[in-house]
Amino acid sequence: xxxxxxxxxxxxxxxxxEYVAAGVHTTKDGTEGCYNDYCPGFVIANGxxxxxxxxxxxxxxxxxxxxxxTIRIKKDEKTGDWSLYREDEGGTIGGMTLLGWWPQSLFKSxxxxxxxxxxxGEVNYQYxxxxxxxxxxxxxxxxxxxxxxxxxxCGFDSSGLKYIYAYRPIPLVxxxxxYDISPWYDPDFNYPAVIxxxxxxxxxxxxxx
Length: 209
Fold this sequence. Notes:
Elements: E1 3-12, E2 19-27, E3 43-44, E4 69-75, E5 82-88, E6 97-102, E7 116-125, E8 148-150, E9 180-181, E10 199-202
Antiparallel strand pairs: 1-2, 1-7, 3-6, 4-5, 5-6, 8-10, 9-10
């Protein structure tokens, strides 16, 4: 794999040795990353209209129509499996669709609960190359309609209730001169006009290590 770009939602334990992740992953040279049903262990739901690994279409247009999908990872309290759901805004699927699940038997610490939730954009490339774009290819300060973002970001407890964040999530950026992240917009704290918890991220291609 020479270059790849992804946005991912992940849950894990504290040591990072066990985790499940879902999102969108692309590679410049068309090789496969292990973010879909080619990975061993993921079970595809019977009759699912959507499959991990499918291309998203239609896409958002810079400065034009925006397209949104909802990804949810949820622990089944009866089976202990971690289930993956997806919904497309304005689509014909109707409600959250179960795509599949990671069986409880795959995990040790995650068989109980997740301690960490992450929402990330990432790129990978070799040392002799320049990096691909992240998100829409534009920096986070261009905001909605131009920069990529995560919206209505939240966690749920075992009863299905949304978390009330006691602390803001911690932003981590390792190459801020190439790719960046916006402030965490939070209706519960300093942004009363904000409707949902969200942030923007991304940057153009051409970054070098």
